[in-house]
Structures are given as C-alpha cells and as structure tokens.
C-alpha cells in the first residue's frame, strides 16, 4: 500500500488528487490547516486527516510524527498548499507568499525526508506554476506573459528551484515540479477562468505514481517537460 501525504488538500487540486490516488489504492493523508474542514473533506472520500499548517513548524512536525507512528514510512509527498497573493505588493504580502509557497515546501520536505528514505520508491511532487518560469513569462505567445502576479510568480519560481535542488541533493528520491494548467478553484474564482480540477489533478497523479526509473529534477505540464 502506497502511503501518500498531500498538503492543502481539503479543496481544489489537492482534494481531487487525494480522491484519484485513493481510487488507485493509496493510503492518503489529507493535510489541511483547518481541522473542521480537513476532517470533513477526508471523511467524504475515505482519506485520513492530519492537521498541517505549512507555515507552522510545530504543526508540520506533529503531522509527520503521526504518519510515522501509524505507517513507519512515507512513499509520496505532494507539496500542494499555496496561495495566489494577488493583492498589494508590499513587504508583508511578500513574506506571506514566500512563507506559504516556498518556505512551507522546505518545512514539509525536511520533516518528511526521514520517512521518505524508508520507502522503496520515494517521490515528491511540487504543485508549482509556469508563472515562475522565465521562459514562459517572457514569451508573448504564452498566457503567462500578460498575467501580473509578481509575488505568486516569484514564489513559484522559488518552489520550482527548490524542487530541482532537492533532486540534486537527494538522488535516492524523485523530485518533480508541475504546472497543473489554469484550473477552476477558489484561487482563480476572481478571474472566472479554469478547467475542471479533475483534469489538472491527473498531472499530479501521473508524477505521484512514477516508477523507480522515472524522471527527477523536472518542471512538467500535461505535455511533458517545460523550460524554466
């Protein structure tokens, strides 16, 4: 049985990824900051809830400790928690965006590494964004070119680079980042755009179910590797 932890999974792409991985037979730990919402979401699909706030070191440590006590290992980590940070561009907003989208990834990954090393096929997937790709945001033919989301883009660039650096420093564990596609979630509601979460979650699931010889250190979308 594959043991999987997904952060920020009580709604959106994280929740749908949990549902699809459960259908594939994974034991899924649904991480969420809000206990009431998280427990309700987990109960609705048969996942296991862990309270996990990626901006709180104690919360992260407690979540991984509970998985360790119950399972003794972690096979798949999906770093999904994130915020759009589409408001004012100032110091506090920047600190918040990077704390959730980049530093949170470090907190969870570092806490998870001892458990991932106990897996026979350890895999880490980061739900990043091509908004953090220099190639995409400077290409007039790409939709990212005309989207002024400075803090989101910069923090997702950091998330992708962290993923690549983890792949280099942890050769026994696969680390890949992905662009899930513009998806209809709470994050994009103000824009009125996006495809169903079921389609975007399939990309996460593909990278979360790679074989032992799968790629590592990549940024991908549904068509394959993206330039960074």
Write a brief structural summary:
With 228 residues, the protein is an alpha/beta fold. The protein has seven helices and eight strands; from the N terminus they run βαβαβαβαβααβαββ.
How would the blueprint of this fold be written?
Elements: E1 3-6, H1 12-23, E2 27-32, H2 35-45, E3 48-51, H3 57-71, E4 76-79, H4 91-116, E5 123-127, H5 134-137, H6 150-169, E6 174-178, H7 197-208, E7 218-221, E8 224-225
Parallel strand pairs: 1-2, 1-4, 2-3, 4-5, 5-6, 6-7
Antiparallel strand pairs: 7-8
Helix pairs in contact: 1-7, 3-4, 4-6
Task: Summarize the structure in words.
The chain is of the alpha/beta class and 228 residues long. It has a single domain, classed as Rossmann fold. It is built from 7 helices and 8 strands. An 8-stranded mixed β-sheet has the order 3-2-1-4-5-6-7-8, with helices on both faces. Helix 1 links the parallel strand 1 and strand 2. The termini are far apart.
Oligomer: single chain
Structural class: alpha/beta
Spatial shape:
globular
Helix content: 40-55%
Tell me the name of the CATH homologous superfamily.
Answer: NAD(P)-binding Rossmann-like Domain
Would you state the CATH class?
Alpha Beta
Care to count the β-strands?
8
Main sheet characteristics: 8 strands, mixed
What is the total domain count? 1
Indicate the CATH topology.
Rossmann fold
């Amino acid at each position: 049985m594959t043991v999987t932890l997904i952060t920020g999974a009580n709604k959106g792409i994280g929740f749908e990824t949990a549902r699809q991985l459960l259908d594939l037979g994974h034991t899924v730990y649904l991480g969420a900051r809000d206990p009431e919402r998280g427990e309700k979401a987990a109960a609705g699909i048969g996942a296991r809830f862990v309270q996990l706030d990626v901006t709180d070191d104690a919360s992260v440590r407690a979540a991984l400790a509970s998985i360790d006590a119950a399972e003794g290992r972690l096979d798949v980590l999906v770093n999904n928690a994130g915020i759009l940070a589409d408001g004012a561009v100032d110091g506090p907003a920047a600190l918040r965006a990077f704390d959730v989208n980049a530093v949170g990834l470090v907190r969870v990954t570092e806490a998870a590494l001892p458990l991932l090393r106990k897996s026979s096929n350890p895999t880490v997937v980061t739900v990043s964004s091509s908004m953090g790709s220099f190639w995409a945001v400077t290409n007039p033919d790409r939709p990212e070119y005309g989207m002024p989301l400075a803090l989101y883009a910069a923090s997702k660039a950091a998330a992708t680079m962290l993923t690549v650096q983890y792949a280099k420093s942890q050769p026994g564990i696969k680390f890949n980042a992905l662009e899930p596609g513009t998806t209809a979630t709470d994050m994009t509601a103000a824009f009125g755009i996006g495809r169903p979460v079921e389609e975007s979650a399939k990309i996460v699931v593909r990278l979360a179910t790679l074989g032992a010889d799968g790629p590592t250190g990549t940024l991908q979308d549904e068509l394959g590797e993206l330039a960074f």
